[in-house]
Amino acid sequence: MSFTNTSKNFNFNVNTLKLTPEKLAEWCKRRASNTSPLSQVFRKESSSSQLSSSPDQNHHNNDDSQVPSNDSSSQPSTNNCTPNPLEMDHRLETIEASIEQIQESQLYINQDLDYIEKSLENFEDELAVARVNICELKQDTARQITINIFEQIEEMINIFKLDMQ
Q: Which helix (H) or strand (E) segment is 153 a member of?
């Protein structure tokens, strides 16, 4: 399992991954002891393939083929239960690399979330300032309209006074 992070916007939440160190250790123990269902399948497949390609069955056609041989290479391996240490090391390295990539991706995600949170706070601040400005503008507009109305009324009164004279 390998995750490649090609950009900062890698959309993966590690919290949804239910792989804890304890579960990983338990999986490794089960895998090492071959008690996991997958390892039992692998063991069955590998033992059947080794039996079908046994040198005793393929290369000896005479009567002494019935005599058991002491050559260990001609006998089916009874050591199928123990995992290959190199294979286990490689799998463990792959898992560790995947975990590191997931953690690195989580760092990028956390940085993006921090940036979004700060942007949202800035937006909320700007919105509050805009609301105050709108209220002030409404008040200024109402004042100006009131002043204009009174000025027009005063002009009309002055014109009316001039006409009355």
A: helix 85-164
Q: How confident is the model at residue 44 (pLDDT cuts 50, 70, 90)?
A: low
Number of domains in the chain: 1
Residue 23 lies in a domain: yes
Average pLDDT over residues 29-44: 58
* Any domain includes 117: yes
Residues 72, 39: Cα–Cα separation, whole Å: 24
What's the one-letter identity of residue 57? Q
Supply the pLDDT for residue 102.
92
- Helix 37-52, helix 21-33: angle, nearest 10: 30
Measured CA to CA in angstroms, residue 133 lies from 121, 123, 140, 161 at distances of 18, 15, 10, 41
Domain boundaries, position 104: 14-57+76-125
Q: Is position 131 within any domain?
A: no
- Residue given tokens 């019935």 in the structure block: 66
Is position 45 within any domain? yes
Reading the block at residue 107, the tokens are 């760092």
State the pLDDT confidence band at 58, using cuts at 50, 70 and 90: very low
Burial per residue of 110-125, b for 16 or more beta-carbon CB atoms within 10 angstroms, e otherwise: eeeeeeeeeeeeeeee
In angstroms, the CA 109 to CA 4 distance is 14
